[in-house]
Amino acid sequence: MRLDGTIKQGKSNMNTLICGLVAVVMMLTFSAAYGYGTYKEAYDAGNQKVKAKDYAGAKADFMEASNLAVTNSHKKEAKMMLERVTPANEAISDEEVLELVNPAYPGLKDFAAAMKANDLAGAHRLLVKHFATRQKPFVPASRFPFVDVNSALILQHHSFPIGKHKKVADDEWLKHIFTESNYNTGKMETYDLGADIRWNKNPSTSMYWHLYLNQLNFLAGLARVYKDTGDDKYAKGVGDLIVSWVRQMPADEGGGMQTRNRLCNCIAAYDVVRKSPSLTPEMHMAFWKVFITHSRGLVPWTGSSYAGLIPAAVIFPEFKESVAWLSAGKANLANVLVDRTTPEGAGDIHSISYQFTGISWPARCLELFRANPGNADYGEITRMIQTQVGKRLELYIRLRMPNQGIPNIGDAYSKENWSGDCSRLLKAYMIIIGMSSEERKRLEAIKDPYSRLKAVLATIDGTDTKEPAGVSMSFPGTGYYVMRSSWEPQTARYLFFDLSPEALWHNHADACHIDLYAYGKPLLTDAGGALGWGYRTALHNTIEVDEQQHIVPSMRRVPQAKTLDKMAAWMMPCEWITTEGYDFVDGAHTGYEHLGVIHRRKVFFVKPDYFILCDLLTGKGSHKYEQFFRFAGPTRKELAQAEINPQSLTTRSLHEGTANIQIIPSHIEGLHAAFFKPEPEEMDDKDLRAAFSKPDSYFTRLMVGRFNVKGRWVKSPVAVYTREGELPVSFHDVLFPTAANTQADVRVTALTVTQQGAVLPPHRAAGMKIEWTLTGSGKKSKGTDYFFISHEGAGARNYGEFSFDGELCLVRKDAAGKISQISIKTGSTIREGDRTLISAGHLIDAATARWDGECVSLDCLVPYGISVLAQKARQVKCGDKPVKVSKKNEMLVLAAGADQAPLKIVKPMVSLNPAQKGLIGGQPWAVVTWRTARPATTQVEFIGDDGLVRRTILDRRFVTDHSARVEFLRRDEQYTVKAISALKKPTAWSIWEIPDIAAKGYTFKVVSVDKSGKRAEAKAEAPK
Predict the structure, then answer these.
(1) pLDDT at residue 560, as a whole number
(2) How far is the C-alpha of 766 from the C-alpha of 778, rounded, in Å?
(3) pLDDT the model gives residue 701
(4) For 72-125, how does the pLDDT look when each residue is reduced to its tens digit (9 = 90+)?
(5) Do residues 629 and 541 touch, judged by C-beta distance below 8 A?
């Protein structure tokens, strides 16, 4: 199927060039005749003063530019800029504010009469009285756990606890002393702004300090002190500050996000102080002007404007424009919660921290709706909030690490993966979905939050136990994958794999990044960092090519990419499998396609012990490839300690009394290992401030090899494995975590892989022997694993002394050399020398066999027609049920299924869909449907022009109506699609092939393959 992309350009480029030249000549002629240069000089002068925050000077320049403009476009341009720098107090007159009040609103009869009589002063006083005395609408107290109780409106968090508000108000806010964060340094800074505040002057070296000051966060704090004390001096302080601000600053100061946050703070403050007699009519008017000008500015803004528009509309229905604010707010909220939310509930802001704004803000809107019924119809929007916020909360419950933390993704304001408390998350979920009081009471009686989390998931999954239905899980429509050994917090091993599309905001260049946690703490993490610090690829546990970060959709970060299409890295999830014996994830991305390189990463989890990491770099050319591993320290506030063995190139952390990890590379020929040495040795604020204006390589040298500890970027070990040369290139590593006070001796030996006598390089197929010995707590255990992986699909190959015809296999031997486990993916036969270990008459999709004395436990979707090595075993169990077997030589043979007619697939259909509306970083997708006469499984295999074989997650349910969603397609790619179904007792697999899809219709070929190899073909229906 062909996914259409941008229109191809040919001769039109020449036409465009000619037209452009003509336009330039005409513009120069026009400029010379009519003084365009004079207009442009005034306009440019105004822009320079905007950058310097000199709004008064900028206003004068833009007024001059407007007077000098001789074309309508220039006049509109100058007018627009003039509006942007005009103080909010002047942007709308007092009379205009009064005219915007609905005279028919209940309680405004006298106001309406005054307005009709043109008594503006009287109308102003009456409107002040109305707002000071009305009971509804009002801002309710919040019961939602993610809404901060320290703010009156509770949409903007405040940094001070309630008990300190009065002291801070007396000693600082009323004296115009303010404390905000300098995110360049990670430190708080305090400045005395003097009796007459110059709001446009920044005393800090950080633009963020000034942005946060102009959010007016402190207004809600002052209002809270007034509410607590009843002392009018605090209300007057609020009024004085807002009057001062609107006289100097434009409504859109700082852009959309700052406008929204400032509006929220002003609504919060005004709802409290409006009752104070100390508030003068001018102070009331200043607030009204903020509400109107800021709401107007938010209506066209495409960010999360609803968080300001909906409160303004609900709390101030007296204004005629409130209907438009509410309509725009509802549309924006639907855009955020529906259009910009993945099927599993992740927002398109590429950040864990910022995801929660899509939870707390809609929840607060829900509380505003419920507290103020009757002003409008809120039914549909409240139901949408419940559904979509419930989906978001459930996703972040399922992502939780064993310490209740969450993996670092994108900008993070703290080390999210170090610790957490899921109590508020669970409470929020139960409130949002409307869980019954009896059910909430039962769950909240579970004191341990993590045990409560498991019980909530068990309730969602409908299990009879307190454990969730699954352990490892995937979110294929989002690009998140989680591998777990168990739900036990102190012993569980956990790996998070990120293949989520890059968004435009708060994103990091972190495709294929992993977070690894084991035995109570993070072991491999990223640098964290907020507002841009830490977004470079080298600050994550992934691959960097030619010392460049991979492409992300931001013009300033990849200047050589001129359009968003060229900058967006396509995510290509290939496969996800979770079984009792192993988990496997396989994904690729095109972030280095502009360099001619595709990065593909595979992770195999040898449950429950360790992980095997495989990185493949394919494409053309010779490059430098760096594989980064960032170690977490022994505690959240301590630096990591690690060492590299110069012979084996093994890197290990060295932390006493806590968990550790080893990274053991295989195939070390041509591999270089070292810790990254940051430059300069010591870093100061000046280095940080300069970083954004320097090339990627400068930022990499500055930031890699550092970790944020107590607000300071200090040196910390980051292991870098480097290869250089012609593509293709591969890395194969064992990631082996160990518990506290446990010593691990792990040795990895690369096996020679041959196919028809020819030795294969590791980028085609790799084998390794993994010998491990664990010593600790007076106990010692040891074992040997053999791991085989083909990067070219199934096929007969020799891996050292073993032969295997599939894609992936693990053979485990115990200390006595006996086979204890075999795991297979997409294969049929594994032999050791002349001895057959497992054999089947068909490809086994995924299976694990474990030997325990006289029993072999077999985890396999279709456990028929398989032979397994007996050793001492006499029976085979699938689950808890014995399976009928017969003994033949050294093998236990499972009976084949009864003969049946070949399974046929009918009515295959494909429905193509563009990237989800509004989802930044979204990719096209498709739904494949078909039917079978008998119940069977569901899976789709698809191959694009790049030859990458990809599969949807196997749906193990046996059904007759099949549907599979094919995610993360690429534009301008043609795909060959196979729909695959398997019977419970199959003698055949049915595969539907789509060799081509035309622009207006689809041509299908249905192929049913039985044991004898006979084929039956039929044409399928074209989709309507």
Answers:
(1) 40
(2) 36
(3) 75
(4) 777 777 777 777 788 999 999 999 999 999 999 999 999 999 999 999 999 999
(5) yes
Residue 185's pLDDT band, with cuts at 50, 70 and 90, is: low
8 A C-beta contact, residue 782 and residue 818: no
Q: What is the DSSP letter of 337?
A: I
Residue 27 pLDDT: 40
Strand partners, 872: none
Q: Which of 104, 152, 114, 110 lies closest to 130, judged by CA?
A: 110
What token pair was written down for 442? Answer: 């039962």
Number of H helices, E strands in the chain: 25, 45
714 near 699, Cβ under 8 Å?
no
- Per DSSP, the residues of 704-748 read TTEEEETTEEEE--EEEEEEEEESPEEEEEEEEEE-TT-EEEEEE
> Which of 530, 729, 715, 526 minimizes the C-alpha distance to 625?
729
Question: What is the identity of the amino acid at 92?
Answer: I
Write phi, then psi, for 878 (nearest 5 degrees).
-115, 115
Going by pLDDT thresholds of 50, 70 and 90, the confidence category of residue 1016 is: very low
Distances (CA, A) of 124 to 112, 267, 564, 669: 11, 19, 50, 82
Quote the distance between the C-alpha of residue 449 and its chain's center: 24
Q: Which amino acid is at 651?
A: T
Whole-angstrom distance, CA of residue 580 vs CA of residue 969: 30
Alpha helices in 88-231 (DSSP H): 88-91, 94-99, 109-116, 120-133, 162-171, 207-213, 217-229
The pLDDT tens digits for 246-257 are: 999 999 898 898
Cβ atoms of 118 and 353 closer than 8 Å = no
Q: pTM of the entire structure?
A: 0.86
Where residue 789 falls (left for φ over 0; alpha for ψ -120 to 50; beta otherwise) is beta
SS3 471: coil
Going by the DSSP 8-state scheme, the letter that residue 590 receives in this structure is: -
In the beta sheet, which residues pair with residue 969? none
Please state, in angstroms and rounded to a whole number, the distance separating the CA atoms of residues 478 and 925. 12
Min mean pLDDT across 751-760, 813-822, 878-887, 981-990 is at 981-990
Q: Which of 563, 577, 552 is nearest to 827 (CA)?
A: 577
| Exposure letters 710-743 (e unless 16+ CB within 10 A, then b) | eeebebbbbbbbbbeeebbbbbbbbbbbbbbeee
- Tens digits of residue pLDDT in 881-892: 888 889 999 999
Residue that has been written with the tokens 């708080």 in this structure: 188
What's the confidence (pLDDT) of residue 696?
Answer: 67
| Measured distance CA(310)–CA(324) in Å, rounded | 10
Residue type, 461: D
* Residue-level length of the chain: 1024
Which residue in 236, 211, 215 sits closest to 226, CA to CA? 236
Q: Please give the Cα distance from 285 to 283 (Å, whole number).
A: 5
Alpha carbons 849 and 181: distance in angstroms, whole number: 56
Question: How does DSSP assign 374-416, residue by residue?
Answer: TSS--HHHHHHHHHHHHHHHHHHHHT--TTS-----SS-SS-T
Contacts of 464 (CB under 8 A, 6+ apart): none
Give the sign of the dihedral formed by CA 734, CA 735, CA 739, CA 741: positive
The C-alpha atoms of residue 623 and residue 725 are separated, in whole angstroms, by: 6
What is the rounded end-to-end Cα distance, in angstroms, of the chain?
15
Name the strand (E) or helix (H) holding 33: helix 12-34
User: Distance between CA 527 and CA 536 in Å, rounded?
Assistant: 10
216-252 burial, b at 16+ Cβ within 10 Å, e below that, comes to bbbbbbbbbbbbeeebeebbbbbbbbbbbbbebbbbb
